[in-house]
């Protein structure tokens, strides 16, 4: 292990993160909300901490190994979550306990969108901005941003990219150099955010709400500057714009890159994951709208707008709301929540197990059915026209089994704290899938949960954001052996 290189990276990234306190300070000055001090204190404290970690090792130059990359990734997400909680903990309004401040910070950075706060409409503007900003920074991953900077420090970033990048295949790069890959991802990310903000503003939001909600939309986070979420605006046009950008943010960003470079939408239509992703959303939307109309829950127009909105919001693990889907009739609450386990595409800002994994599991299952009928046949699993190596299929099944095991273990942990079954399983599902809203006692917020439950859910959010293995591998004896 190159502990000096690890310390150097953490120090630099902490100092960089301290600068993210500047925008909320500016917002506090503009709106004169009197909450500049917590951000000033946090900025100085985080910068000084990073400086103290960096100074003893700043002359060290070494290439990271893969194991070092895993340690940096996990350590940084943990340290970043703790650092992000500082201004929330120091603020007098809202007055959060330590666990609540950390929970809110973890939820923001992992783009989960689960909140312990109520009375959001009357919070200081700087706090509202900060919550949205946390999600935007976490959406694409601070690590992916950092790999564009680390080479200038004499430290390679490929190992970090492999450790943090989502999806079953980690080594695919958009460009030959990892630095250019990170830049390409962020150009797309920033461009989509800016376009989303402009359209929100054009549709009727004020500038503050438009920027804040664009942060959460493209990050697939779900935090809002209002208790009623997107439903606050009561605007079908805003909801339609939100649907479009949630859908786009749930697509593999590599597809956006290639579609832009080739100037063709055929790139999307030729991608099996995109086709399956679209098919899921269309199918579930048709079922949802049909049930809402058939039961007389809404008139047809409202059923279409709210039904499709909630399907896209929950299925992509965004978590925005225009209606309380937890009280919708028949199978709908359970159906929407289960779809969230699929989540967005690999390489998107969405959570869940990722569409590509579910598609491969389905294809592998169909292959086993065919093998029963034709035991001697050689049957390949293909994505499009390309066969999928058995090693990838094994990795996908391994991920699925560990994902389910961890879900069950954390569910039992929440039940042991005294939560009822619906609240417990939906809270774990919402957090490990980085969704946010759940059912039962967490349908609206997580503020009433006990402290042990909140710590377990913080772990669940990190586990989901780091796609299970990146975090769990640190708990295996084999990882630490020389």
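^ Assign residues to that structure.
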């Amino acid at each position: 292990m190159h502990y000096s290189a690890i310390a150097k990276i953490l120090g630099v990234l902490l100092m960089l993160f301290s600068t993210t306190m500047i925008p909320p300070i500016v917002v506090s000055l503009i709106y004169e909300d009197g909450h500049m001090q917590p951000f000033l204190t946090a900025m100085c404290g985080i910068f000084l901490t990073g400086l103290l970690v960096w100074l003893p090792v700043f002359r060290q130059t070494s290439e990271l190994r893969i194991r070092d990359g895993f340690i940096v990734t996990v350590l940084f997400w943990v340290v970043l979550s703790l650092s992000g909680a500082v201004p929330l903990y120091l603020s007098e309004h809202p007055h959060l306990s330590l666990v609540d401040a950390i929970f809110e910070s973890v939820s923001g950075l992992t783009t989960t969108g689960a909140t312990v706060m109520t009375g959001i409409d009357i919070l200081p503007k700087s706090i509202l901005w900060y919550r949205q900003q946390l999600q935007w920074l976490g959406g694409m991953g601070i690590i992916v941003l950092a790999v564009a900077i680390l080479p200038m420090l004499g430290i390679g970033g490929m190992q970090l990219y492999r450790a943090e990048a989502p999806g079953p295949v980690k080594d695919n790069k958009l460009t030959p150099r990892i630095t250019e890959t990170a830049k390409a991802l962020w150009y797309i990310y920033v461009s989509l955010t800016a376009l989303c903000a402009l359209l929100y503003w054009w549709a009727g939001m004020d500038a503050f709400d438009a920027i804040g909600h664009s942060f959460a939309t493209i990050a697939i986070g779900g935090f809002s500057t209002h208790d009623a979420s997107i439903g606050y605006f009561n605007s079908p046009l805003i909801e339609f714009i939100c649907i479009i950008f949630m859908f786009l943010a749930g697509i593999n960003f590599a597809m956006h890159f290639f579609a832009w470079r080739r100037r063709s939408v055929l790139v999307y239509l030729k991608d099996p994951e995109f086709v399956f992703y679209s098919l899921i959303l269309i199918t579930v939307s048709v079922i949802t709208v049909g049930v809402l109309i058939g039961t007389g829950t809404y008139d047809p127009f409202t059923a279409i707008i709210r039904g499709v909105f909630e399907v896209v919001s929950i299925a992509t693990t965004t978590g925005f709301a225009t209606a309380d889907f937890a009280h919708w009739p028949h199978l709908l609450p359970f159906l929407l929540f289960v779809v969230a386990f699929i989540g967005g595409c690999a390489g998107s800002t969405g959570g869940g197990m990722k569409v590509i994994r579910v598609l491969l599991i389905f294809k592998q299952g169909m292959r086993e059915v065919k093998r029963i009928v034709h035991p001697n046949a050689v049957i390949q699993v293909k994505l499009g026209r390309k066969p999928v190596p058995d090693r990838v299929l094994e990795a996908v099944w391994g991920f699925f089994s560990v994902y389910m095991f961890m879900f069950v273990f954390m569910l039992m942990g929440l039940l042991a704290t005294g939560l009822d079954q619906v609240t417990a399983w939906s809270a774990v599902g919402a957090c490990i899938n980085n969704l946010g809203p759940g059912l039962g006692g967490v349908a609206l917020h997580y503020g009433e949960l006990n402290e042990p439950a909140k710590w377990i859910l913080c772990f669940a959010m990190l586990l989901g954001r780091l796609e299970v293995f990146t975090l769990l591998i640190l708990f295996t004896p084999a990882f630490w052996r020389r």
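The radius of gyration is 22 Å.
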